[in-house]
Amino acid sequence: MYYFTPASDMFETADSIFIYIELAGVKKEDINIEIGERIIEISGVKRRGKGAEEYNFQRMERPFGFFKRAFDLPRTINGDSIGASFSEGLLEIIIPKKTRNNGFRFTSIEIKG
Predict the structure, then answer these.
(1) pLDDT value at 46 more than 90
(2) Per residue, what are the HEC states of the chain?
């Protein structure tokens, strides 16, 4: 099956990882977000407008159909607090990172000698 890949940005701060994906013309209910242990996958469908089959296109540059994007994630993410919003064709996903208090375990190692 053919999937197109929408334009995206991914960056991080000390506290979070941010993913922005341009999905102009896509409805919120046509977007799926799935997260695994070290990967996040965004997929869905961008539908053509009603009656598009009747048109005799001279040029067609905007992709339609199924889309999919996958991003590798570091082990430092806090998968329990991921947030997503969708406004004006831009999907924003915010993935918090773990802190010492919410997931990292530190063990003191005695140095002998």
Answers:
(1) yes
(2) CCCECCCEEEEECCCEEEEEEECCCCCHHHEEEEECCCEEEEEEEECCCCCHHHCCCCCCCCCCEEEEEEEECCCCECHHHCEEEEECCEEEEEEEECCCCCCCCCCCCCCCC
